[in-house]
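Rhophilin-1: structure tokens wanted.
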Amino acid sequence: MSDAGSDEELELPARMEEGSHNGSIRKGCDPCSQTQRSKLQHRRARINQQINKEMRMRAGAENLFRATTNNKVKETVALELSFVNSNLQLLKEELEELNSNMEVYQTESEAINVPMIPLGLKETKEVDLTVPLKDVICEHYGEDSSLFEKEIKEFMELRQAMRTPSRNEAGLELLMEYYNQLYYLDQRFFPPHRTLGVHFHWYDSLTGVPSCQRALAFEKGSVLFNVGALYTQIGARQDRSATAGIDRAIDAFQRAAGAFNYLKENFSNAPSLDMSGPSLCMLVRLMIAQVQECVFERVTLTTPDTHFVTQLQVAKEAARVSDVYSLVLQTMSQTLVKDYVPFSWASMVQVKAEHFRALSHYNAAVALCDHTRGDEESATALFQFHVSTPAGPPLSQVLRDPEDRRKLGKAHLRCAVIRHEEAMRVHGLCKILRKMDILQEVLSFMYKRSLDKYSEMDREDDFDETAEAPEIHSQTQHKPDITPPNFSTVPVTDIFQRLGPLSVFCARARWGPVRVVSLQRGDGGLGLTLRGDSPVLVAGVVPGGCAQEAGLREGDYIVAVDGEDFKWAKHGEVVHILKSCSDRGIQLSIITLHTHHTQVDRRQVMLSPSGDEANALQRTMGRAKGQSTAPLLNWNRKKNGGGGRATKRLGSTFSLPFGNLRDSESMY
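Answer:
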């Protein structure tokens, strides 16, 4: 049963209607399905759990070793530690082999392409938020928590589905939807200086080492990492034998680079190595290199190979690919990354750097020997082709003399053969790469092609020593972009919207108990001024008027009228109810915010032109990139002026916009 088939069976979900709450219909993959990818994820999850168990045993043994003074006990514990460390090493090696399994994620097309490097998803444990959420609903919002069991269950089902996303657009939308819902969860249930006491467990995507934090930022960062990892899998599975598949692969790898770069810029003091700055920098460069490789493949498909100038351009593109992979290899060789990156990844990157350098010299030889023309365009292209001037006759003479062209072409072919041999040598040193038949086939074919071409140009009477070909200028027609994640592509509705508008009813706000006042119209009217909506604000009270006598104060919010919930009521609805009240009067349920700065900010949100948080959220998420003034995913940051660390929960990724104030005051 093919993995691709199981993924494609999932239909893309319909968009949720604005202003309604019908629940998410996006689902994850069946964890019991026996696809190649699901089997791989199952094995990774099992090894992650075993590593977690062994690390707990090691921690306990180390504590006992430090605490005991009995030499016999110390010897026994030391032996146990040796056994546990041996088990850990074996488990990590097994996990590394699984994480280095690139073939599972490659395309099933019969076309021969160099395999790409995808990432496996981070695994996470189940988390039960039922009790903590109910406690906040009861204690902070003063609501009956049993009435919100449906919402809590829906959120828990969404998180469970997020753990097994399908490898297509539906899986990406599932991750994005959960990430967007985390914004609302943060605003509703996580006050600035308090946590829910819930621990989020995530495993390192490469080593399987578990990390645990109570900060919701860790959950958000891990989900975003999986967004980038899923894009790498989507890019690797594309059929790159046609330009359409190449373009899809380019888009996927650019979006993966954007997700990792977003984390790198907005994430500090990562609890796991896969989300540390050096690792994310390496992943961004790796994705950019794979984009550049796809660009080269597109150039070779769309460029005719019968023209001298275009053949030189192909050689420059190949040199560019080699350069970016060499940069990735340098990044992987840094101290903080060298021992973390799988050996097969570093070997694959080195193989590609040598392979594409060989292709660069091969295309230069083909251009010189098969397609040379003596026009001005060809002369200009050749003068700008090499990093340094080749030894021997001037290039203007080389263009006119076939023998000089043959000698220079032979020099480039010699470099191509040497580079191919080096690529095959590095390939042979890695056990995992040796198992990849496609890579072996590509390297052997290209090496034989260069060797045959060299033999064709070699002559029996050629006793001159082959000159050393200079390096080739790297140049590309398409510079890779880093596409940041666009959260507005998956609009969501707050699952807990029944708690009330987020502008007032959030974890950061504090308000007094609900007061019920009876308001009757007098000869001078009701004596109050209303402003805004969702909820409607009492903007002013006439001294000595009916409203003041009833107990209304400026800054109160109307949350219910005659027992009916009016938290989401519009300005006009409340005005109509008050105007039509009978002589017996009307009962208003009122709350007053206690936190002054919160009240001011939330009023601005409430008075934004949209009057709806969902719309305001989408406008904020759709803003141009780069407008954030502070990191969004920071926690455990160092205090200014102090060496200690202070726990800081995630700031709002999707801050509600403060739009222009609306002049919608009404006096009664």
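Residues 1-21, 31-35, 596-664 have pLDDT under 50 and may be disordered. The two ends are 71 Å apart (CA to CA).

Cheers.
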